[in-house]
Write a structure and sequence with these properties.
It contains two helices and twelve strands, in the order H-E-E-E-E-E-E-E-E-E-H-E-E-E. By secondary structure, it is mainly β. Strands 1, 3, 6, 9, 10 and 12 form a six-stranded antiparallel beta sheet that branches. A six-stranded antiparallel beta sheet has the order 5-7-2-11-4-8, with no helix packed on it.
């Protein structure tokens, strides 16, 4: 009789609906909740980029205390003389650039007042540790053998044109959605820079934004 009762109970348990069962061990790659990371963004406006080919124009430097993951760098541009289809390379350097002239005010994403925390309600998210800069005079590139992370075309229309430009959009956050590693900086001696592969036309202006997380 005991065996019959045990078999009956076991059978009823197996027939219980899946919704009543609880899996306490998530499978690898299964998203079980929204865990936001400490996220920051900084926009820049009216940057007059360095015209010389092979220049690091905009850079983000890593942190001595956090792992910095670049989620997105987007750049729009215009010219005053003729349209231009410009090639921009995204490079990771193991040594920091030196010298050069940093842009000022709103043309520089590194200005503290332009770095925005995405959620100031989280205590660890109140201050970023990554360093950002844009240049109006070329820096000295110390690392001459960088890692080429990505390459994009930036289409710059005339400033008075009604036609839309084509942004250079280094969008790594979409990779993260598919569990692909994003462009990462470990330590304060690494940086990721937007480098112009060809000469930029005079009187060009750039606007853009950088988004990153710190863990």
């Amino acid at each position: 009789m005991k065996r019959f009762l045990l078999a009956t109970a076991l059978g009823l348990g197996l027939m219980a609906p899946a919704s009543a069962q609880i899996n306490t061990v998530p499978q690898v790659g299964l998203t079980t909740g929204y865990l936001a990371k400490n996220t920051y963004s900084s926009a820049f406006f009216g940057l007059a980029p360095v015209l010389t080919a092979g220049t690091d124009e905009v850079c983000i430097t890593g942190s001595a205390t956090k792992v910095v993951r670049v989620q997105r760098i987007t750049i729009y541009g215009t010219t005053a003389t003729s349209t231009q289809n410009l090639v921009l390379n995204l490079v990771r350097r193991a040594s920091l650039d030196t010298g050069g002239t940093a842009a000022s005010t709103t043309a520089n994403p590194g200005i503290a007042t332009q770095i925005a925390s995405r959620d100031t309600g989280q205590t660890p998210n109140t201050a970023s540790t990554a360093v950002l800069v844009s240049y109006t005079a070329a820096p000295t590139i110390v690392d001459t053998a960088p890692v080429y992370v990505d390459s994009q075309n930036l289409y710059m229309p005339l400033v008075a044109s009604v036609s839309a430009g084509g942004a250079a959009d280094f969008h790594f956050a979409r990779d993260a959605e598919n569990n692909v590693q994003v462009a990462t900086l470990r330590g304060a001696t690494q940086q990721i820079c937007v480098n112009n592969a060809t000469t930029i036309l005079a009187a060009s202006l750039w606007n853009g934004v950088i988004v990153w997380t710190e863990e």
